[in-house]
Amino acid sequence: MIRSVFLIVSLLVFCSSDCLASGFDEPTLIPYGTVWPEKPETEEDVQTEVTDDMAERSRRWLIDHLDNLSGGIDSFFVDRFFNDDVTDVQGHGSHAKFSFFTRRELGDPVDYKFGVSLNIELPHTNDRLNLLLESEDEDVRESQVLESPDNVTYSSALRFIIQQTERWSSSVDAGIRWGIPPDPFVRFRAKRPVYFDYWNFTFRQELNYYTSDGYGSVTDLTFDRPIDTQRLFRYEMESEYLLNNDYFTLMYGAGLYHEINPIYAYAILAKATGDTEFGATFDAYEFGVRLRRRIYHDWMFAELHPQYIWTRENDWEPTPVLMLRLQAEFRRQ
After folding, report:
1. Residue 15 dihedral angles phi and psi, to the nearest 5°
2. Dihedral sign, Cα of residue 104, residue 108, residue 110, residue 115
3. pLDDT at residue 75 greater than cutoff 50
4. What is the total count of domains within the chain?
């Protein structure tokens, strides 16, 4: 009996000393001395260092994004899809547009017009020389269908591209406007795009000399604002000056362009025109809608263009106008 009591007391003393030595650690199921591996750093914990190269790539992405949406040098949506003149496009391969349209103004007979615009890159010239052919006389139309192609005034020119970069594009054209008598001309064109936030600002300047008209200049400012991936707002201003006339002709316009899908697109347009001959005045206003559709593959288009026109000559009475257009485009990159 005494021996049993002695063993129990000895066991209690041993356990108490062991607990004091361990500092009364809380009981745990994890074996003593277990070493856990360190937690690896995740992507969320790592802060990406912004470098100059990353900033440059971001800038390039923004430029390309705005360029694709708002036109740049050759936007399909606005400048290519709605513009008839391809001679202002540089460095994008040979391409051509042929158009035939009818126009009916209330109270007048139907008239017709044929248009052509070609820009051919000459081979073995490092994309420096282009051959241009375009129809002019935008306001001249014929009352007979078969007479329209014969009575169009054409001009041809050889273009030398001075510079074609992201920031600047410039060229010199030398050619002849065919008529009786022929009208030789030379012109210099320059274009400078500027990107500011979500706005794309484009400045165009032309200096020209025509034998019949003398020296002149054309200044064009375009402001594009993408609304989303399919809609774009454009505001543009243009002034033309002829030294012999000694006054400016002015144009202000705005439009909302919407590409519904690769087949359908429309534009809501407003425009005001005037001059500074007797002070800055406007003598015509236009408002209309252009509905455009691909009708055959990717090179044939049809367009319906209803609009209203107000002119000083008609005492600002609204005149409805309806235009139908058929256009073919050929392009080789």
Report:
1. -65, -35
2. negative
3. no
4. 1
User: Is 59 or 140 the better-scoring residue by pLDDT?
Assistant: 59
CB 204 within 8 A of CB 190: yes
How far apart, in whole angstroms, are the C-alpha atoms of residue 293 and residue 295?
6
Q: Which residue shows structure tokens 């909302």?
A: 256
Whether the model pTM is above 0.90: no
Exposure b/e, 199-237, CB count within 10 A at least 16 = b: ebebebebebebeeeeebbbebebbbbbeeeeebebebe
Q: Which residue has the tokens 């050619």?
A: 175
323: which 2 tokens? 């235009």
Q: Are 64 and 197 in contact (CB under 8 A)?
A: no
**Enclosing domain of residue 279:** 58-332
Q: What is the pLDDT of residues 266-321, one digit of tens each?
A: 999 999 999 999 999 999 999 999 999 999 888 889 999 999 999 999 999 999 99
- Is 149 inside a domain boundary? yes
Residues in the chain: 333
- CATH at 297: 2.40.160.40
